[in-house]
Design goal:
single chain, 875 residues, six-stranded mixed β-sheet, 50 strands, 5% helix, globular
């Protein structure tokens, strides 16, 4: 670090803060000296000091961090026991104090108390009363969540509770936009929040709980009563050097029947309100069945790039939720995005077969427009019947221009590439659920999807840059155009019945089918001449019938699940008078053991066998020009790929103290669809086949967390190994990739002292095949400091990474300093902020990749230094 005295200052400050604290710990027991798990203990300071709270673990242990020389009124409570009150006078040193609670002879269902308990745990719901943890200076939900015990928020807005990721965010029990946490934590004002509920094993439908397993964790934000009938929110506006501007309104109106939300973002800085993750969440998230389709989506390819040198970003999101009556509710949202960005990438490539080097500079301009929407109806005619219907739609338009400057073996070539993409998607979904009795519940799902993509790429060059087997007409100006069109219609029907045999045995039956109709057309032409061997007109249909039986058994505190699925698959392909068909019958087993050792310890074992089928493009019989130097040829004989997946994970969580999260994952891919490379100098002809060599990958990680009342420390180690094979010019190439990651982080959450958020990681990669070996190291340092002094808030962030590639001896260091100063007078609706990003004005980042036939180093230019002055008005 350039200024080590700053770190010394914070270390000294932290040491002084620790020295002013003492620790009281012990056990909470009943009259038979048996531990009480989940008992609440609160310590209220009578003068200066901070309220302390803890919940006893499965052994009855508790820990309180108290301010030295302060008297506390202590309350210890547990459901069904008499609340005990104690006074701790002038606490001066660490002590061990045990508390014994007497059983309440009245056995009340609820203990009536005069104060709000900061944290209340009831089965799978944890409730935080936020006033007990905040000081009123927090601006957004994000700052509130950081102060709650067991809750973490990263820089991107991801929220985890007790080490598990929050997947759905609700406001007053209604989903906020798509349910993703990022929009909520960065936009909902802190002063409207009354309490926060964290719901594990979350289900939209209450009577399905206990039947369908849910890995979802929901966070419900309850608003204060005086905020439910008024408009609230804030508006940010700012100007900066080099004509920078920022306008960010976030306006909300909530009422008992109808809620409205609007979030806008208009700027030409490096700030993005809608990212790749937001789009994937809108599209239903990632799973094995749609992973390939999502990754290859044109929208994903552009949203994935977050490094640009210029940007004009326009974003608007509108959300409405209306309860027409007790039976029918309607919700909808619209999201509009317009992005114009410029970026530059410099590539150094080593083609391993011929040991030829290439330098390629790409100057890219993107104009992207995206419109997303959803309308949903939820109908509950009676308590045990629920019908949900929604329609989602998406319209995308992308115009991309790339100027390429290429140095191949000291030969300079310049050419341009223009891409036009238009995409339309519609998805309709209907789910009906009926509980007939305590023992029988049924579910029916019908799903329709339609997707159309029109894609064209135009290469303009003065030199023939294309593979030799394309009969290019050599002339002064070469114009090559590729057009493709993809249409997909799909419907899914599934019927499921849940049969509860008794309290410990469940039996579930599932039957359904899936139909896909895919049409793909493509051609390649120079001027008005079409190359016949690059014309494709494929109609690909596939029909799947499946049925499964699932047995679930409760064994002590563990749930054992075994499922056997039968799948019949049939496809037909017709492409330019070439007919082919394929049929398979499969049995796919699945086993899971979910053991709740205690309410804080959990062990999960999973094994399942799944499969994926080849995509439409992989089944074409002619060629596609993927890129100017890359030809793809399909294979009509491809079969399915099988995935054996085994995992074992353990969680031992404590609100304060040590928490452990070890896990191991192993995956084997058999009969994998793998690309065969036939290379000629730098040109690749790629053909997919099913290979008999398994693709194996192993990942182990171990995360250790230590939680203290005012700080948290985390250490993570992760190792990944993958072994796979490809074919280059009919030669099998085996690759072995190893990756080692170590990360340490430290974060404080003091009220009236500087807070530090520190993270350091070291990544070592060892990628080897028979042609090349690449060893690289990447170090990342991230330090953020924020401090509140009266009406001022100071915040700074320093990022540093150092990259070294031992194969090329190349090194690169990158550092970025961001800072802000915020001022808001107490009880004033106005706030002002000076914000600076990339203050050191660093230029680029560097990384490398290795494939079976290519080693590449990629230097990416980053957004330049920016200063903006903002005014914020709170409604």
């Amino acid at each position: 670090m350039k200024k080590p005295h700053l770190i010394l200052f914070f270390i000294l400050n932290f040491s002084l803060a620790i020295s002013s604290q003492i620790v009281i710990k012990g056990k909470i027991l009943d009259e038979n000296n048996k531990p009480l798990t989940g008992a609440n203990i609160l310590a209220f300071p009578t003068n200066n000091g901070k309220l302390a709270h803890n919940v006893s673990d499965n052994l009855g242990n508790y820990t309180l961090s108290l301010t030295k020389n302060t008297t506390y009124n202590t309350s210890i409570s547990f459901m069904g026991f008499i609340t005990r009150k104690e006074i701790l006078n002038n606490t001066k040193k660490d002590s061990i104090i045990n508390f014994i609670l007497k059983e309440d002879p009245n056995k009340l269902e609820e203990i009536v108390i005069k104060y709000k308990i900061p944290v209340r745990i009831r089965k799978d719901t944890t409730t935080y009363n936020t006033d007990a943890f905040t000081n009123g200076k927090e601006r957004k939900l994000k700052q509130v969540l950081k102060k709650l015990p067991g809750v973490e928020v990263d820089r991107k807005g991801n929220v985890t509770v007790k080490g598990k990721k929050v997947t759905t965010l609700l406001v007053d029990n209604k989903k906020f936009f798509t349910g993703d946490t990022k929009l909520a934590v960065n936009n909902i004002p802190a002063d409207v929040i009354d309490k926060i509920d964290v719901i594990e094993d979350y289900h939209e439908n209450a009577f399905m709980k206990g039947l369908e397993k849910s890995d979802e964790i929901a966070m419900n934000i309850s608003l204060k009563e005086d905020k439910k009938k008024f408009v609230f929110g804030d508006i940010e506006a700012g100007l900066g050097i080099k004509n920078r501007y920022v306008l960010h309104p976030a306006i909300f109106k909530y009422s008992p029947k109808t809620n409205y939300s609007f979030i806008g973002d208009f700027n030409n800085t490096n700030r993005k309100s809608f990212t790749l993750r937001d789009y994937i969440n809108f599209d239903g998230g990632l799973d094995m069945n749609n992973l390939k389709e999502v990754i290859q989506s044109p929208v994903v390819k552009l949203l994935r790039n977050q490094n640009f040198t210029a940007s004009k970003h326009k974003f608007g999101g509108y959300n409405m939720q209306h309860a027409k009556n007790e039976k029918l509710s309607i919700s909808s949202f619209l999201i509009a995005l317009s992005d114009k960005t410029n970026s530059r990438v410099e590539n150094f490539r080593n083609y391993l077969i011929d040991n030829i080097t290439e330098r390629l500079r790409e100057d890219e301009r993107n104009n992207q427009n995206l419109f997303l929407g959803k309308i949903q109806f939820l109908y509950k005619p009676e308590e045990n019947t629920r019908i949900k219907y929604y329609t989602k739609f998406e319209k995308t338009s992308i115009n991309q221009t790339i100027e390429n400057n290429r140095d191949l073996a000291n030969s300079i070539i310049n050419f341009n590439e223009n891409n036009l993409i238009n995409s339309d998607k519609i998805n309709s979904y209907l789910k009906a659920e009926k509980k007939f009795s305590t023992y029988h519940t049924s579910q029916a799902i019908v799903n329709f999807n339609f997707n159309k993509i029109d894609d064209s790429t135009n290469w303009l060059t003065n030199t023939n840059i294309f593979p030799n087997n394309i009969p290019i007409n050599e002339k002064e100006s070469i114009n090559v155009l590729k057009k493709s069109s993809t249409e997909k219609f799909e419907y899914n029907v599934a019927l499921k019945h849940f049969w509860i045999l008794d309290n410990v045995n469940h039996l579930y039956f599932n039957v359904g089918n899936n139909f896909e109709q895919n049409k793909f057309k493509s051609n390649l032409q120079q001027d008005n001449t079409t190359f016949s061997n690059f014309s494709n007109n494929l109609e690909h249909n596939q029909f799947t019938i499946f049925t499964s039986i699932l047995y679930k058994k409760l064994i002590g505190d563990a749930i054992f699940t075994a499922e056997l699925k039968y799948q019949n698959y049939y496809r037909t392909s017709l492409d330019l008078n070439n007919n082919s068909s394929y049929q398979s019958n499969l049995l796919l087993p699945k086993i899971e053991m979910d053991w709740d050792i205690t309410n804080r310890k959990k062990l999960i074992f999973k094994y399942n066998l799944t499969n994926t089928f080849p995509s439409t493009r992989q089944l074409i019989s002619n060629n596609i020009l993927n890129n100017y130097n890359n030809i793809y040829t399909g294979n009509t004989d491809l079969k399915e790929t099988f995935y054996h997946f085994v995992s074992l994970s353990y969680r031992n969580y404590k609100t304060y103290g040590w928490s452990f999260y070890p896990s191991i994952y192993y995956k084997i891919r058999n009969n994998q669809v793998q690309n065969i490379f036939n290379t000629s100098t730098i040109f690749n002809i790629i053909n997919p086949i099913n290979i008999d060599t398994p693709n194996k990958s192993l990942t182990t990680n171990f995360r250790v967390v230590y939680n203290y009342k005012y700080w948290k420390a985390t250490v993570l180690t992760e190792y990944t190994n993958s072994n796979y094979a490809t074919f280059i010019n009919n030669n099998k190439i085996k690759s072995n990739n190893n990756s080692f990651l170590t990360r340490a982080s430290f974060r404080t959450v003091y009220d009236n002292k500087p807070n530090i958020d520190f993270s350091y990681s070291q990544t070592h990669k060892d990628n080897t095949n028979s042609l090349f070996s690449a060893i690289s190291n990447l170090s990342n340092l991230d330090v953020a400091v924020d401090y509140e002094y009266k009406n001022w808030k100071f915040k700074t962030e320093y990022l540093y990474n150092f990259y070294k590639n031992n194969a090329t001896k190349n090194t690169n260091s990158f550092n970025e300093l961001n800072a802000s100063i915020f001022y808001q007078k107490e009880n004033s609706p106005w706030g002002f902020e000076l914000l600076g990003t990339n203050i050191g004005n660093n230029i680029s980042k560097l990384n490398s990749t290795l494939s079976s036939n290519l080693f590449s180093e990629r230097r990416t230019l980053v957004f330049p230094r920016t200063f903006v002055v903002k005014a914020i008005y709170k409604l």
